[in-house]
Amino acid sequence: MTTTLVDATDQAELAILNLHKKFMSESRPPEALLPLNEAALQRFELLKFPHRKHEMYTFVNTKELVSTVFSLPPETPVSKDFIKSHIFPECESSYLVIADGVFRDDLSDYSAIKSAINLVPIEEAVAQSEIKEYMADTIEKENDVFASINTAFLSRGTMIDVPRKQQVETPLQILHVSTGSTSGKVTSHPRILVRLGEMAELKMIVKYVGAQGNYFVNSVMDLLVGEQAGITYVQVQEDAMDAWHFSKTRVVQGQNSRVSAFNAFFGNQLTRHHFEAHLKDVGVELKLNSVSVLTDQEQVHNFVRIHHEAPHGTSAQVFKNIVSGKSRSSIDGTVIVNQGAQQTNSDQLINNLMLSDNAHADTKPNLMIFADDVKCTHGATVGQLDEDQLFYLKTRGLIEKVAKELLTKSFAESIIQTIEFPGVVEYLENNLLKKLEA
Amino acid sequence: MLEVKDLRAGFDGTEIIKGISLSVKAGEVHAIMGPNGSGKSTLAKVLVGHPSYEVMGGEVTFNGENLLEMDPEQRALKGLFMGFQYPVEIPGVNNAEFLRMAYNAKRVNEGKEEIDPLDFDDILVEKMEMLSMEKKYRERNLNEGFSGGEKKKNEILQMAILEPKLAVLDETDSGLDIDAMRVVADGVNRLRNENNALILITHYQRLLEYIKPDYVHVLSHGIIVKSGEKDLALELEARGYDWLAPTN
Ligand SMILES: Nc1ncnc2c1ncn2[C@@H]1O[C@H](COP(=O)(O)OP(=O)(O)OP(=O)(O)O)[C@@H](O)[C@H]1O
Ligand SMILES: [Mg+2]
Chain A residue closest to B107 (CA)? Predict the structure, then answer.
């Protein structure tokens, strides 16, 4: 039996190598990226696809994904109306459209912030030694094979550069559209690199959607946050139901910088998000909130690694997952406090609300502490609706169904409310929470 | 309005309410006093149908109907209200929205149309002004982060909006400062009429100076050990409960 398993993964790896050959000849990545493509491909060959017991994929079954043979998406038109329908009100003239990983100037409108940010094609960005070294370093250290694949297929990424002291007040939306396919399955590898100079500020909303299904979007976003800089962003995953969504966000934070991240997941047949943060210098603050509302057979898996690498860092994470039907959620989250990272404060809270016996909510919170003067907590709850809350609402005349729905929504609402973009809050209330109405 | 006959109730087979009879008529105010742990809150929660408690005997009718057979929400819709000693916090539920849902649930039950948020806001603002509540409590989450006194005010706000036939207020006065107590008592008094009734559970005579009870009952170890008129409250304040302790 083992041999067939090995064969299957070998096949899958071969398929990627074949696809990569095609990519090299058809997509013709810019010259400057070739060494990165090559190095990442080698990393991929070393890492290989995860086998069933791979520690980074404990709860994620990738068998079907890796045995699917993908092709590269043909250039497919995307209508402006479709784009418009996915732009949040606060970003009406500050959005970038990335279609199948390719920045589409013709579909974007960022007139409101044009003077505040620089958009640099990734092949130009890597000419800067800081970016070049960062890319080379992460390729070498990458241990998530899907992120390696992303870089191996890197050709049309974009760097969003916010210069030193620039405070971008208007939120920037990045809309990732997977055009999908009606014949066969396609894969794309979007890559966004956001660099904030010293004391720069950025607000960002990232949204993933599919024009149609049958795709695998394998995305990476790098956030390089300079000294005393701050970024607040929300990522909304709302891909087609029969799509695969893998995304990785890699955060590197400089001295006294602030990152406030929020992930909202609609789920689909398989979504996995990998959040990796390096609190590199002193006095860093990191906040990560997350909500997922899953029904039917939907799956969302979070894999989180937060590295406290310097003293006086703070990280706070809250996850809220609602699972019903036969859906699955998992949070595999580890906070690592390095030896020198004294006075670290770290909290992680995972709350799962189970609405059905057939749903799964796995949690694997973990702390690895190598410093002695730290305050770290983590906790996880799995539960049904609170009886006392339910009773309270009933004593006010709300019937059981209404009271339950209100409480279920409130479970997610309480974290959605922490989002600072009213348009996103409203969108999630009207769409994500809508999933709970039977 | 409310007829309680030899009610016995508790949880996990342990009796806490050990045979209580009580008759409350429209227009009346009854005060229930008694030492900590005597079963006052339990009695109130059994009346509104808390699922943790088990009724072990006796009967309760509310305007002629068997109360014990009804779900908590039915009891509420029939006009029974409880102001909790410890109101729960519900993060993520907007206070104003919740109040409107409750108000509309009552309206729909009465065969009336639901009222929209704007019209409801007028009602809400009026009631909040009556209770000197700042408008910001509309936007807050239901009881979340409310101080002890603010929670109690929010309970009375709900009562003011739902206009129940019978309200059981469990230690609404505890946690209120002196001014707030006067405001709340005035509010409650304004809601009173000959068609509704009140049961006040309290430890303090002070509340009963503002809301004058027709009867005072002393609960001890799950039974009413003494009933009297409002002077009894004064006597309790002076003498405590020891002299009333049941002998068995
Ligand atoms: N759910 C429960 N689980 C365990 N014990 C309970 C529960 N409910 C009530 N009790 C017990 O029943 C007794 C009566 O409690 P109750 O809350 O009714 O008292 P009370 O008269 O309201 O007291 P207080 O004046 O302190 O509010 C107490 O001994 C209490 O500990
Ligand atoms: Mg009590």
Answer: A397
If contacts are CB pairs under 8 Å, which of residues 334-373 in chain A contact chain B?
A: none
**Domain for residue A232, yes or no?**
no
Q: A289 CB near a chain B CB, below 8 Å? A: no
- For the stretch A83-95, pLDDT in tens is 999 999 999 999 9
Task: Give this prediction's pTM.
Answer: 0.85
Report whether residue B197 contacts ligand 1, using a CB cutoff of 6 Å. Answer: no
Assembly ipTM: 0.95
pLDDT, one tens digit per residue, over A248-257 is 999 999 999 9
Q: Is residue A132 part of a domain?
A: yes
User: In chain B, positions 123-182, which contact chain A (CB-CB < 8 Å)?
Assistant: 141, 158, 162
B140: domain CATH number is 3.40.50.300
State how far the alpha carbon of B72 is from the alpha carbons of A197, A387, B48, B95, B166, in Å. Answer: 59, 13, 6, 20, 14
Residue in A closest to B71 by C-alpha: A394
pLDDT at B56 over 50: yes
Nearest CA to ligand 1 atom 11: B37
Cβ proximity of A334 and A363 under 8 Å: no
Range of the domain at A166: 1-222
| Number of domains chain A is built from | 1
Could you read off the pLDDT of B182-219 as tens digits, one per residue? Answer: 999 999 999 999 999 999 999 888 898 899 999 999 99
Residue A53: what pLDDT?
A: 78
Tokens 């019903």 belong to residue: A324
Chain B residues lying within 8 Å of A394, measured CB to CB: 49, 71-73, 76
Q: Which ligand is nearest to the CA of B219?
A: 1
Determine whether the shortest distance from the Cβ of B38 to ligand 1 is under 6 A: yes
Count of CB contacts below 8 A, A vs B? 75
Q: What is the mean pLDDT of residues A100-126?
A: 97
Chain segment A38-84, per-residue pLDDT in tens: 999 999 999 999 887 788 898 999 999 999 999 999 988 999 999 99
Number of domains in chain B: 1
Q: What is the DSSP string of A251-320?
A: EEE-TT-EEEEEEEE--BSEEEEEEEEEE-STT-EEEEEEEEEE-TT-EEEEEEEEEE-SSS-EEEEEEE
DSSP B68: G
